[in-house]
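Exercise 7.
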Amino acid sequence: MNQATAFPSRRAVLKGIAGTGAWLAIGAPQAQQPSTGGEIVKRTIPGSGERIPVIGLGTYQAFDVGTSSAERTSLKAVLTTLVARGGSVVDSSPMYGRAEGVIGDLAAELELRASLFLATKVWTSGREAGIRQMENSFRLMRTQTMDLMQIHNLLDWRTHTATLQAWKSQGRVRYIGITHYHAGAYDELQKLMRTRAYDFVQLNYSIAEREAERSVLPLAQELGMAVIANRPFAQANLFARVRGKTLPDWARDFDCNSWAQFFLKYIVSHPALTCAIPATSKPEHMVDDMQAGYGRLPDERQRRDMVEIMESI
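Solution. The predicted structure, written as tokens, is:
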């Protein structure tokens, strides 16, 4: 494989964007399509047939900010860019500090709620405690209906599943999910997946953490469950690995022009994947991430080449 210089790094590509303020124009609502044209790739939620964009937004740490304009200005641009570039999924949690409230405030201020697919989680024990926590999430995110409520790390899943199934029948939540961030939980995840009580499973998956390919992802396809990938950059470790490296020239073959897009296109090219949720507080990074949802995706041979090059670094 030829690793000759083909594209600049994420930092180099985005330095000019951020430096000129050009992201404001790129992320504006009227700029609906990136330079490659076409529409963002969408995947079907098997349980309903609804289609959602393959690139969404995570909020861990990035949206845990205060109320000042200085702290929130860039986050407004991030949300605006997400929607302008065809995205909709925003994933949060009560464990992410102030993130749920920030999302709710900004979505209301920017009048974006109708354009967003809001997902959050419950992570506590006991029926009443779970209800209180989830009701607070509704309040903070300023929504009457939660698109996706997930049982985080499977904590007290029996109790919360019963509550959420009742709420789904009442229309309070549209989808129910289960989550985990570590491959050590995959056996338990698969047991719960086989109950067919859930619409979504969220788990760690990246080109650096591929364990899910052996078990959870095939099972999700078999059962007809949507899959959200968290930790798409392996907690930024992937960027550390490629610092100073250039993309292979064959990345052009699947419309890839940054390492972030390389990592995200690997994830969403897996047929079981529904959405990846990179977290960012930087609008220029949101532009870059969203571009991964456009154009061609790598085929199986190209995916093997992508793994090979990362293992060689």
